[in-house]
Amino acid sequence: MKAGSKLMSALSAAALSSTVLAASAISIQLATLSEADAAVVNRIEVRGNQRVDADTVRNLTQIRTGQNITDADVDAAVTRLFATGLFSDVRANQSGGTLVVNVDENQIVSDVVFQGNSRIKNEQLQSIVQTSSRQPYNASTAQADVDAIKAAYVRTGRSDATVTVRTLPAEGNRVNVVFDINEGDRTKIDTINFVGNNAFGDGRLKEVISLRESGLFSFLQKNDIYDEDRLRADEETLRRFYFNRGYADFRIVSSVAELDPTKNAYFITITVEEGERYVYGNVNIDSTVPGIDGETLRGELKTKSGDTYSAEDVEESLVNLTNAVANSGYAFAQVTPRGDRDFTNHTISINYVIDQGPRAYVERLEIRGNTKTRDYVIRREFDVSEGDAFNQVLVQRAKKRLEGLRFFKSVNVSTAPGSEPDRVIVIVQVEEQSTGEFSIGGGYTTGGESSGPVAEIGITERNFLGRGQFVKVSAGFGEDTRSYNLSFTEPYFLGRRLAAGFDLYRTENSSSTAYDIVRNGGALRLAAPITEDLTAQVAYNYKQETFGDDQGIALRDATGNFILGPTGYIFTTCADPIAPLYTASPIINQAICDSPYSTSSVSYALTYNTLDNQQDPRNGFFAQAGQEVAGLGGDAQFIRTTGRASYFSLLSEEYDLIGQLSGGAGNVTALGDDLRVFDNFFKGQDIVRGFKYQGLGPRQNGVAIGGTNYVNASAEVTFPLPLVSRDFGFRGAAFADAGSLWGLDNIENEFGIQGEDFSLRASAGIGLIWASPFGPLRVNYAQPLAKEDFDRTQEFSFGFSSRF
């Protein structure tokens, strides 16, 4: 029994010992696994690199020898290497104490090539894409470049353009990247439809917005290119259009642009809700600031009870009141308009409340985004500067001024807290746009000193060298005319709102008279705003005029016909012993022989301008009156007084009928013994249509000799042409003119003079106006209703149009 017990004890001990050994083995294995998860790196081996140095790869992993690393550390190192853009593939694994990093390097871009593009130049595309030569090639970046090129073509009106990218191998593990472009056709705007508009027709609203339906001359004007940003801007333009015409409840329900791939054209539908039209009810000014009497400020208001409501008038009244209060010494006074809308009677009462606002100062003006325009060009449009009292109204007024410069695509003004509670930082964010223009214009004219086809080439820069200066160089050419002009304007002379500049010109003409005319001259000018609508100008002018041709002039008989000799026309000059016969007028002949003349003068004028649009006015008043005094040297001594005015009124919003009343007058008086004949006024179709250039007024033997006085008036109505799309830019006109040119100075007793006394001429007619890509052109048919026998008439006339 004892032997058996001993055996059992031995077996039990052996089993226990085996269990302890197994447990120990498991513990050792777990410890080994833990050490593998966080092993020490003794060496980092880099494989597959060709251009990138191995030490660079090691540094990029951010793993150091002697460091315990985990799988997460290895994954992070791989991610960092991928993020450099240097590698197309990265693999890393640990073998014992060695971390092995395998890399496949991206190929280096040798060259970037664009194929198939003509509308957008290579230089423009290169600035759009991120892929560039001598940089690693990245497939995802190249695909992003494809999308960027497509977006650029969409902005140029080619939504169906296609772009693909491919690579071509080059020597030294390099690659050429090729963007294949199919530009496609221009994506046109087929139609623009308005839904819900009753007060204004589709045609009128199409004139308001900037987007246009594709037409005959769209390829020149390029205003039929759909752009979502332009559509959003047009929405705001429509809102302001309605708000300024009494429709305070107006809203845009939706604006949708649908692309028809089969026609490659957009169909735009703008749905609006006009609401009712409002007029002003009671208009009051209430002041809670001691010392400010609201009633004394009523003259600053543009809003009057009974007038049609206009958001623009409210804004202008707000600015006027703010300026008036600030100029009275209340820098922190705040003007707030409060409206009370009567939905039943469709009136809006306005109460302008003047309160004492919080005391806040402008800490600084911070200008951002201007890459070309100098900071001071932007700063000078603000009536507030660092240290001044902060005024939100004046800040917004400056924003409108900056937008009016046409230097920027967008202007955003915001504020941020300053370093103290009463300090404000004004942030001005701008986006530059092109301010240079190359223009080619042409037309046909039958008025003025030139007649026949004419053309002009010009280069204009509105923001010269980013200084806000205006420069224009132009040259004009006609069958018998030449003109050359250079103009420069500094809008802020001596740091003030004084527009100073100069003009230089030369004109050569031999088409409309029996004698050549050559003028060389220039002017130094200065203009200063007195109010927002009133401007004063002063200028010094100098010109030299030569009449006739030193090489000889063909002789004419008393009826104006050329005299033909045995070998051709007979020529003469002033040096001939016989009296020259340039024209049938001895007065003109003598003046020609006495040329060249020089005129040195000073001129000054006042201009009042409230037109709503300077290029295409529908409402407002324009008036200008001034004098020119000659005699500061030169050959001429006279005082010339002129004035002109035009009043525009939109007679019908629905039918877009525009009425215009215009008038003018002038007088020239000698300051010395004699007034040169060429210092007279020469008038014709420029004051009464239906007459030739120099077609009315005093004449000697049938030749115009001008007059010392003139007066004219006209009435005109313009309208859209029925059944013709307004996108073509045509308008019709009906007009009536009246005027006269009369008076002579010291030559009343000359032989053969007619028309020195006042005699009224009148005409009526119709016209066709075309807002062409080359400028506004016009053709008129006018029938003279009152004239003298010696006048020269011309029923049809062609030329460039001027509205005022």
TrEMBL record:
InterPro entries: Bac_surfAg_D15 (IPR000184), BamA/TamA_POTRA (IPR010827), D15-like (IPR039910), OM_assembly_BamA (IPR023707), POTRA (IPR034746). It is found in: Cell outer membrane; Membrane. Pfam families: Omp85, POTRA. The keyword Transmembrane helix does not apply. Keywords: Cell outer membrane, Membrane, Repeat, Signal, Transmembrane, Transmembrane beta strand. GO terms for cellular component: cell outer membrane. The keyword Heme does not apply. One of its GO terms (biological process) is Gram-negative-bacterium-type cell outer membrane assembly. Residues 1-22 form the signal peptide. Residues 39-106, 107-184, 360-433 form the POTRA domain. PANTHER family: OUTER MEMBRANE PROTEIN ASSEMBLY FACTOR BAMA, SORTING AND ASSEMBLY MACHINERY SAMM50 PROTEIN FAMILY MEMBER. Part of the Bam complex. Belongs to the BamA family. Part of the outer membrane protein assembly complex, which is involved in assembly and insertion of beta-barrel proteins into the outer membrane. HAMAP family: OM_assembly_BamA. This is Outer membrane protein assembly factor BamA.
